[in-house]
Amino acid sequence: MRARKMSLAILIIASGCFAATSGAQDVANDGSLSDAAAASKASYDEGERAFRDRNLADAVTHFRTAIEHDPNNTQAHQRFIFASQDLGRSEISAELDEAARDAAMKAAADESFESLLALYQEWSRESSDVAGYKWAIGQLYMYRDYDKVRQYTNEAIAMDPGLADGYSTLALMADVSGDNDLELQLLKKAVETAPDSPDKAFYYAMRLNQADPVLGRTKSLEVAERFPASERGAQSLYWLAYRTEEREEKTSLFERLRATYPPEEFSWSSSGMSLLADLYSETQPAKALALAEQMVAATAEEPDGWDATTWNARLTFQQDVIKGDQLIAEGEFQQAVELLQDTTIPRYTNANVFHETRARALDRAGQTVEAYEYLLRLAATEPTDRVWTALGSYAEKLGKDDKTIRAEIRDVLAADAEEIKDYTFERYDNGEQVSLSDFKGRVVLLNFWYPFCGPCRGENPELQKVLEKYGPDGFEILALNVHPEEDQFVLPYATGNGFDFIQLRSDMDFALAEFQARGMPTNFLLDIEGRKALKLPPISGPKVRTLELQIESLLPEKSTAGGPVSDVVVPDPGQAADNEPAPAGATASVNPRELRAGAQALMRIELDLVPGTHANSDSPTDSALIPTTFFPDSVDGVLWEQVIYPRPTEVVEWYSVDPLPVFEDGAVIQARLTVDKDAAPGELDVSGQLRLQVCDADYCYPPERVQVAAAITVID
């Protein structure tokens, strides 16, 4: 059955072979370029609509038609390739167990690659002057053969020096190879060849922010000014504000984002509002409250959506903090304690003021020891300078000095620390074997990453700064590459960027089996005894200072707390302690509930996820992420025909340059089944397992399986 369906998918892909060639000739001979581009865009837009509705065969057809109209429409090539690959994956039998399905997924990927490669080679032979075909062949080889990526991309640019996406592809290759100067030159060339592209302008400005922050700031503001209708303009302002350290300027940039790009219309502006609320909360609580009220109103049309749920929780939280402060001012200390101990801290919220207010309420209510112990755990697991300052004030009341505080923090960390095996790895630079025990006596950051991981490359400059600051005191970074197929880039990338991490060989199987590390980057801090002390989110922005304070707590009696106030995201203490979300759930039903032998029905599986989390879609864009997959159980008298996954939602996380396709709470997966024509009347239980990997803004948790079941009745 699978082979026949796969052949159908390949037939859909290949049927456009000669049509695309003839279309290219028609455009060249009879149609104007503007007419061809307009027709191509119209077909492309139809393809996007079909893809969002999960009509993959239609999407493939529309994207292929867009290519027929304009063979140099690189966006159409990208989406045609991705939709074709997705179509192959979607037709894998739902009856397969996990191992067989994983093997089928790999086989489907290989089969799609071979059929697409043959198709593009045919197109390229028939229209040898079309650069878009050469470029697309290079894209097919991405993550398979990087020499061929460069070869075909360079051939495409030689044919058409105005092919902007060719320069973007080569810029990525330069980035992962550690050639920063070449990367910047290529990104600039992409902008010059496509001056009206918000994508090209955005990526050039982003890279300039690292190479030349002053010029990068200017270019980022230009992107926001030139492209007021583009999500890239909002994204540019978001990242500029996020990376700005000075509080007033940061606030001003987020306010500009709010004014220029309405949060209800632009996802990057909506994401930025939570950070603006954090800034307001520390100095202007009334503004934080007003912003939360505005966002609740803006998300009211989808009251059960993630944004609405998040902002309603944020509004309640802000109201509780303000009320708690008022109760303290009125001398109602115990009422403030009771209010704040029942307050839920929304995930990804800067809770500095909340922690200070709750500790102050406890202290004023005569519970200074409780105030100290509350802040002590925070200082151990998710420290900020403000938490440290507040902790010190209550320690002084209790007669505790700085040495005592640090000893008690180490006791908290030691109690939660986990013994791990003495793993051995091979170094990239000299081939020597090193073991974790070789680093006992030093605080170690285990960094699971791979060169083509964008968030990994994003955090590495920050990690290098931390290493330079604390390396002399006994801090080390061990970087484990989990994609051996990218080995050739590890040392050139690290050397070209001046990263002093010890680069070690690893793979995804090890990372998942031994450390439950799935989404990259994943970081762990090991204490001087070699125990796993803390699991960390990607290190960026204010989380850098949190990492520094964590390292200081683990180093043996060498560092002191203090320094400037940071805007650090602090989750609820209980969440920080275990870094685990509540279990994911799902409910199942079948329609129709009663049916005759030989009839079909749909099993409906609705996801039940914790607010602030999401599950990977059935086709995540990052190959390191586990797709949501339904595995039906074998049931006598029932044939499972097809699993139908919903259209994913695109969410924006701070560490991701582009939106991620995910399933949110309430998403519905359907499984079509047929009752055998010879089935006897009576009740049948139909069931299966839903494999989910739940992620939030900081982590992707180990995948879990949720059992779902429903009953049907076979009638005469």
Written account of the structure:
The chain has 716 residues and is α+β, with helices and mostly antiparallel strands. The chain has 4 domains: 2-161, Serine Threonine Protein Phosphatase 5, Tetratricopeptide repeat (Alpha Horseshoe); 235-410, Serine Threonine Protein Phosphatase 5, Tetratricopeptide repeat, CATH 1.25.40; 424-578, Glutaredoxin (3-Layer(aba) Sandwich), CATH 3.40.30; 585-715, Immunoglobulins (Immunoglobulin-like, Sandwich), CATH 2.60.40. The protein is 54% helix and 15% strand. The protein is built from 27 helices and 19 strands. Strands 5-4-3-6-7 form a 5-stranded mixed sheet. It has a 4-stranded antiparallel sheet with strand order 8-10-16-13, with no helix packed on it. α24 links the parallel β4 (475-481) and β5. α18 packs across α19 (352-364). The two termini are 30 Å apart. Residues 1-32 and 558-579 have low confidence and may be disordered.
Short characterization:
This protein is of the alpha+beta class and 716 residues long. Helix content is 54%, strand content 15%. The protein has four domains: 2-161, Serine Threonine Protein Phosphatase 5, Tetratricopeptide repeat (Alpha Horseshoe), CATH 1.25.40; 235-410, Serine Threonine Protein Phosphatase 5, Tetratricopeptide repeat; 424-578, Glutaredoxin (3-Layer(aba) Sandwich), CATH 3.40.30; 585-715, Immunoglobulins (Immunoglobulin-like, Sandwich).
